[in-house]
Structures are given as C-alpha cells and as structure tokens.
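Example S7 (structure tokens).
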C-alpha cells in the first residue's frame, strides 16, 4: 500500500461563480463524497467585469455552503496551476453539463496538464436539473424581472434581487 493512500485528498473547484448556482452546489455536495476537502476557488481576472465583486462572491459561497464540512472558499487571480502549486493540491474538480461543455473543458484540462504533469482534472456530470443553467442566463432572467428562485441558493437569490433592484414580492409573482 503506498503512502498516498493515507494522505487526505483535496480538490480545487475553480470557477467565476458570478454568482454560484445550485448546479455548482450540486457538484460540490457530490464532490465532497469523493474528496476529503474541497477548496471552492473564485478565479478572477481584474480586467474582466463581473456583476458581483470577488468578496461578494466569496461571501455568498461561504453562506450557501456553511453546513457542508470540508469545504473552504478562496480566491485567485492568475494561472490556476500556480494556485495548485502553492496549495499543494493536484486535483481540479469540474462539472460537465451538456455536450457543449466538453470541448472547452477538454481544452482547459489538457492545457493545465501540459503545464504541470501532476495535475488531474476530475469531471462530475452535472445533475440533470442543472444541465441548461448558467450564471449568465440566471442574471439575464433576474434583470428582466423573471424568477430564478429554484436555481440558486436563497442568499444568492436575495443578492440578485438587490443588485437588480427587484423586490422579492414582484419576483415571487412569477411561476417557478
Ligand atoms: N451547473 C450550472 N452551471 C454551471 C455549472 C454547473 N454545474 N458549471 C458551470 N456552470 C456555468 C457557470 O454558471 C458559468 O456560466 P456563465 O458562463 O453563464 O457565467 C459557466 O458555466 C462557466 O462557469 P465556471 O464553471 O465558473 O467556469 P468558468 O468558465 O467561469 O471558469 C476557470 C473557468 C475560472 C476555471 C478558468 O478560466 C481558469 O482556470 N482561469 C484561471 C486562469 C487560467 O489558469 N487560465 C488558463 C486555463 S487553461
């Protein structure tokens, strides 16, 4: 038996998370059954505009995952592989939704591995319910007054309403 078997396994789950959705949470909840620890990493590019600040995104993730043991939240600007090197982790966790994700994910996984051979990307198939959701489409629907209540955690839903200045009552009038 190699010593590796006794070491705890940490996976890094990177993303923009602008904002985190129930689809991401589903991947984290399932991932923590496989890994001992998961670091949810808000990967940001200071030159790229986002709806939520990095701090807001981290806070929303922390709030939404409060109950789940073994999950922590961090942020990083720059190459993902550099974060992995400093954290000592060598596993990247990613969710795969529809077939359309495959090429992009494959490209990223190969590029990360080209830079550091030790890195492995592990994919979990997204839950069927979340196959066609994305942060962009969720933001668009809220900004136009539609309801996304079933697609994001409650705290995120509230923050989205605040950002777009929509009252919860108006928003709840829409069918889920
Ligand atoms: N359920 C629902 N939606 C999901 C999802 C799931 N399980 N997984 C991803 N999504 C959605 C997100 O909401 C997001 O939607 P949007 O594009 O409408 O905003 C989209 O899918 C992509 O999201 P995400 O998982 O956050 O990936 P990303 O493309 O934003 O993240 C990074 C990519 C951050 C991991 C990548 O760019 C990176 O590593 N950056 C660091 C710099 C670097 O190293 N670059 C070289 C990489 S080879």
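Recovered sequence:
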């Amino acid at each position: 038996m190699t010593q590796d078997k006794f070491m705890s396994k940490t996976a890094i789950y990177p993303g923009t998370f602008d904002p985190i959705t129930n689809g991401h949470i589903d991947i984290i909840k399932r991932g923590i059954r496989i890994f001992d620890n998961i670091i949810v990493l808000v990967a940001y590019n200071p030159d790229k505009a986002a709806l939520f600040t990095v701090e807001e995104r981290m806070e929303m993730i922390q709030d939404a995952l409060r109950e789940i043991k073994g999950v922590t939240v961090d942020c990083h600007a720059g190459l993902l592989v550099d974060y992995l090197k400093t954290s000592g982790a060598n596993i990247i966790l990613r969710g795969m939704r529809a077939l359309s994700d495959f090429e992009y994910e494959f490209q990223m996984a190969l590029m990360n591995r080209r830079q550091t051979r030790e890195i492995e990307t592990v994919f979990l198939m997204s839950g069927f319910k979340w196959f066609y959701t994305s942060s962009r489409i969720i933001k668009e629907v809220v900004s136009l007054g539609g309801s996304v209540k079933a697609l994001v955690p409650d705290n995120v839903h509230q923050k989205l309403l605040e950002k777009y200045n929509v009252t919860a009552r108006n928003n709840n009038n829409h069918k889920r």
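Notes on this example. The pocket of coenzyme A is lined by residues 14-18, 21, 23-24, 27, 43, 79-80, 95, 97, 108, 111-112, 126, 130, 133-136 (CB under 6 Å).
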